[in-house]
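for the writeup, i need someone to sanity check this before i put it in the appendix. the sequnce is what the collaborator sent (i think, or maybe the updated version? ugh). structure was predicted straight from it, no edits. if anything looks off just tell me and ill rerun, i have time this weekend
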Amino acid sequence: MAQEPLRSDAFSGPLKRLFMVVLMLLLIGVFILWRIDSPRVERFRMAVIDRVVPNLDWAFAPVAGAINLLTDFQSYLKIYEQNQELRRELQRMESWKEAALQLEQENARLLDLNNVRLDPRLTSISGTVLTDSGSPYRQSVLINVGARDGILDGWAAMDGIGLVGRVSGVGERSSRVLLLTDASSRVPVTIQPSGQRGLIIGDNTLAPPIDFVENRDLIRPGDRVVSSGDGDVFPSGVLIGHIAVDTGGRMRVRLAADYERLEFLRILRNYGTERISGTGSMILPETPPAPLSDASTAESGAND
């Protein structure tokens, strides 16, 4: 009868169990050896450590590298969190910077309103522009002062630098300011230093033309343009702008007021101004009654 060949798995099981038992006894022995409190055992432990540990640097290198890698990763996470926090802080600072710039510009405009030199007889009241109600056919803005603040129709309005327009409608809490650029605006002016008189005619542009000048040869680009006070609508001597010449050779006025950033307006109280009751009285004087003809006089005498 033939014998069956020996299989390897018949020995692997007992060898594994024997190896586990020896390993456990070795570990228990090392544990007991490290727990014995004896000078002789302590010298033995130190001798073993001095002999074994220096030769195991290669074994500890991966462990040290893994520990360093974990430490670097934790540092990277902290740096990333700090970077994100700095980004958020930068965004908040940008918003604060924008708010600070807006407040600085607003403060500068208010300072301009206070620093404008006017006739001492003129007092003023400042208001905020509520909305721009202009259109291609009408240039005007609304301000938050009205009849309760003593505003009267026809008073002049200016920003921190120059004349802007006049009050053309007064409500209880708001008023409408018709701008100099409006097509219905007509402003008599004086050109300095020549002293020439003219009339600014609005044409819905930021550089309205100036017509009816007495002598154009005495006027140069850059000359100062101020209100003349003719017509008793605007007070005299208020800055409007400076002379400029367009490509067609027509004289225009480069307005001093910043029409693109009208936030605050200064209404000039001028009680000496003629009270305007209608838009027609601004351009044409009231027509006196026509004298009676001789025929109508004779007829009335005959009737008597």
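The first strand starts at residue 123 and ends at 132. The radius of gyration is 48 Å.
thx in advance!!
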